[in-house]
Amino acid sequence: MIEIPNPDSIPGVADWVELSISITGSAMSKAAVASAIEGAAGEEVSEAFLTSIWRALDYRQQLYSHPFFKVEERTVEPQFTSQPPSEYLACLLLSLFGVQGDTQLPAKLFERLTCEAIIRYLSGSGAVFGWPSDRDGTDDEGGSKIKRKIEQVANDLKERFCEAPAARFNDRGLDVIGWIPFSDERSGQVVVLLQCAAGHNWRDKLPVPIDAWLQYVHWACNPIRAFAVPCVVDERDWHEMSKDKGMLFDRVRILNLLFDGVKDQTLCNELDSWVTNQLTDLNV
Q1: Which of 256, 270, 233 has its CA nearest to residue 88?
Q2: Is the pTM of this model over 0.90?
Q3: pLDDT of 15 above 80
Q4: What whole-number distance in Å separates Cα of residue 86 and Cα of residue 92?
Q5: In three state form, how does the secondary structure of the chain look?
Q6: Domains of the chain, CATH where assigned
Q7: What phi and psi, each to the nearest 5 degrees, are found at residue 270?
């Protein structure tokens, strides 16, 4: 059994329950959850804390359009007819353990996953914009990579490029861009500028600076900002987080949009591989 990374966190324990029953394919009782918390925290868990975990799981169950589990009074049961989807497991692993090590792979996978979700939501187009893995802000011709990328975005969306930020700003907070193009291919359309936060510090991460992007591109209609995380944003935080960071794409929304899986087979294979490696590292 996977040890609970943060036994004092209600959403963290709820994530752990989701992951555990997904991997084992077996129901988990309140007593088993209490025992696991006590083993990780070194102290007895209160009934009120357990009740809060069950309430969090029940809240999630109601939000998922295709529930991954069923919450009973004393148990939580998985609801899979086959192996749990890698999209779901990847989000759970990122929510529980964050982005570990120096590799950018999990963050990049989450960006691509989010891109597919926003394309589905808009029934439009989308692209991953995020800064490349190399640290050099100039290309082979000595020009600014960020400038060339923004020029490409403006060109693709038929909007007017104005200027680029200094190379030190990297991707300037933008990881994924989504838009709903018109058949006449003119400017003036719904545009969403989205930042992804796959790590544990997502609450402290600043949203896409829309005012700055209004300087870089002369949009015919101002874009909307959005924010994506692999966790489930708590009900009590939802309104303020939306006001602060923009339209939220949390795990529930991403998975509801991708209920039948990602269409990009390369991404599907890479998610499968990453999830398998992560579970192997956890001795599962």
Answers
A1: 256
A2: yes
A3: yes
A4: 10
A5: CCCCCCCCCHHHHHHHHHHHHHHHCCCEEHHHHHHHHHHHHCCCCCHHHHHHHHHHHHHHHHHCCCCCEEECCCEEEECCCCCCCHHHHHHHHHHHHCCCCCCCHHHHHHHHHHHHHHHHHHCCEEEECCCCCCCCCECCCCCEHHHHHHHHHHHHCCCEECCCCCHHHCCCCCCEEEEECCCCCCCCCEEEEEEECCCCCHHHCCCCCHHHHHHHEECCCCCEEEEECCCCCCHHHHHHHHHHHCEEECHHHHHHHCCCCCCCHHHHHHHHHHHHHHHHHCCC
A6: 10-84 (1.10.10), 102-261 (no CATH)
A7: -70, -35
Read off the pLDDT of each residue in 193-214 and give the average, rounded to a whole number. Answer: 93
- Tell whether the model's pLDDT for residue 254 goes beyond 50: yes
